[in-house]
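Aggregate trends can hide what the representation actually does to any particular protein. For completeness, the protein is quoted in full, as a sequence line and a line of structure tokens.
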Amino acid sequence: MATVQLTDVVKIYPGNVKAVDGFNLSIADAEFIVFVGPSGCGKSTTLRMIAGLEEITEGTIHIGDRVVNDVPPKDRDIAMVFQNYALYPHMTVYKNMAFGLKLRKVPKAEIEKKVHSAASILGIEDLLERKPKALSGGQRQRVAVGRAIVRDPACFLFDEPLSNLDAKLRVEMRAELKRLHHQLQTTTVYVTHDQEEAMTLGDRVVVMKDGLIQQCQTPLDIYRQPANRFVAGFVGTPPTNFFEGTLIQEDSALWFDEGSARVRLPARSAEMVAGKVGCPLVMGVRPESISDDPTGRFASQDNVIRFTINVTEPLGDKMDLYLITPNHDHVVARVDAHRGLETGAQLDFYLDMERVHFFEPGETGVNLTRETESVASA
């Protein structure tokens, strides 16, 4: 096991294409950290630089107490699990798992012990004599993970390992990977474009965009206290709703005016944005912070917006409502499916203003109402 440290890491491809820009991150021993972001954000490139499969343009990478910038991948004491599993089709499961150890000239008896131990951990002992073509996607994934486990590396690197599995199997494998990490306690760096995967697996989550770290914190902190508008919109399903408007003052209260309605800011938020009166702002509201219940705990005439229901999506005990106003044609509310709500109906909806955030304008506008006391440094 080992720490991983990336200091001022930059990757520039020919044509001056900057894939990763000034990446700084300290990964603790035995930590499970997840890189997440849209396609092209630099997450896989960063992982491949840790692995040694990509040369870095600038900066330093430490694994343990070694600088590994010029160390070949095979000597970095890492094990990588790829999206396509990269199994040898002509070899049995046993031989696939043993292959790396055999190349390192590990004694046969030790190879057998390690392979059977890993197969037992993963529940694939009865598959050792099969070839990959005779395995399901989930079984192949277990073999790929087993091949990494037998090496007993200082660090596991996972590059979107579940993206080829169906939805049900992905959920099962997520739980399996989490159990394995708790059991093995090996430092793990995991790349995914699936923010739900990131939130359920990571001790910390690194949200990336355009080669830059947007935020690095625990999943819960990222969800509750997004650093900027991009993070708020990327993390969460359904995503955060954004309302553009202006901050106005009336008597001693601050209000956000979005054109067709206005809502009053609670004392905490008002204090944080007091210097923005008269300025354009963006209000971010999670779908679960919009309620249709007039008797609910945060129902008030100070935080009500009238919407027209455009589409309803029943989800068992919950329902997603797609709402429109004269100024917005795509607002999502997740409400209890406690009564019939029909398309075309006009209703008052109430915002939980204690959980609303206000951002500077722009795609990565800073969260002005973010509580930073518990923010963990990258």
In short: Residues 374-378 have pLDDT under 50 and may be disordered.
